[in-house]
Amino acid sequence: MSKIISIGGNEAMVAPGPTTASRAKAWRPSMGEFRWIWIGTIVLFALSSIVAPGTVTRGSLLAMLPFAGILAIVATGQTVVIQQRGLDMSAAGMVSLAGIVAAVIGYATQSLLLAVLGSVGVAVVVGLFNGLLAARVNITPLVATLAVNALLIGAIRSITGNAPISVPPGIQSFAHGSLLGVPHSVWLAILFVATVALVTRRTVIGRRFVAVGVNPRAAGAAGVVVLRYQIGAYAVSATCFAVAGILLAGFIGNASQTAGNEYLLPAIAAVVVGGTPFTGGRGSVVASGIAALFMAQLAQMVLALGAGPAVQLLVTALAILLATTIRALPRLLQVIAGGAKA
């Protein structure tokens, strides 16, 4: 059915076209597009068993999995924002602040539930503020979230006086706990990944979310409230960062202003290695979660081989470069094949 829209005060008839749902379906990622990260992770663990067998023992895996779970939760948040053509550089500050807020509220109220709800509540407010700056005020997401990150670090310093804060025993107990032999952080990572994947793939909200990421103007013309999804993406990401920050603070036993620094670039790397492009729309939180496991095991293997921090960063950079190359290779071969036929 044709639709009449107003442009500059003049009415114009728009020919019927694909609906928002069909646009989203057209760009819905196939499992094959992200299959290689599963293969790469299997190969990495096989390689680890040969060059660094100590990293695949039960003790080593149980020591690595909590941090992989935390990284997967942060990567889930980044994936949601990147699918909306954004980037949340306030992840480091939010992870740190979440642990501190949970510790302060936890000691003040002696309630684990209130500590978690208070921390997540602060995160939602920060996420909405990020979204308003990026989507409504039209500040470049990189700049907007970096500025918010600076504000968060300032708030942390005011609260802590640059000194780490101990975390209530209840949070520590949960962070160190396990269910069926699997750390709680891994179960929470699975929950976050599965929930986001289910919503984006199987619901109307998810299809509209993908459509907004693919083409905001087309989605808006189809009647979708674009700002709602763009701003909401930052609220979801901040919630992920907050949960990760609480788990991290509980696992290491204290919260500090630098706690989240180790999860900013690795989380973005996990998204890239998982195959989610920065062009918006397409993406897979499942692939990002598996890529977080890949990155955690890669770091552990490199560390076991005696490499220093500089070499670890170099290996991470090479992993990102390799992932980008592998993802672009099929398209490059198609172009070459098309040129040869011409």
Mean pLDDT: 84
* Radius of gyration, in angstroms, nearest whole number: 21 Å
Please list the strands of the largest sheet in the order they lie side by side: 1-2
Shape: globular
Textual characterization of the structure:
The protein is mainly α and 342 residues long. It contains 14 helices and six strands. The chain has helices spanning 20-26, 35-51, 58-82, 91-109, 112-136, 141-160, 169-176, 184-202, 204-214, 216-221, 226-252, 265-274, 285-304, 309-341; strands at 3-7, 10-14, 165-166, 178-179, 182-183, 254-255. The strands form three sheets. A two-stranded antiparallel sheet has the order 1-2. A two-stranded antiparallel ribbon has the order 3-6. A hairpin with a 2-residue loop joins β1 and β2 (10-14). α4 packs across α11, α5 runs antiparallel to α11 (226-252) and α8 packs across α9 (204-214). The chain is globular. The two termini are 40 Å apart.
What is this structure's SSE topology?
Layout lengths: L2 E5 L2 E5 L5 H7 L8 H17 L6 H25 L8 H19 L2 H25 L4 H20 L4 E2 L2 H8 L1 E2 L2 E2 H19 L1 H11 L1 H6 L4 H27 L1 E2 L9 H10 L10 H20 L4 H33 L1
Features:
mainly alpha; two-stranded antiparallel sheet; single chain; 342 residues; two-stranded antiparallel ribbon; disordered N terminus
Give the gist of this structure:
By secondary structure, this protein is mostly helical. Helix content is 72%, strand content 5%.
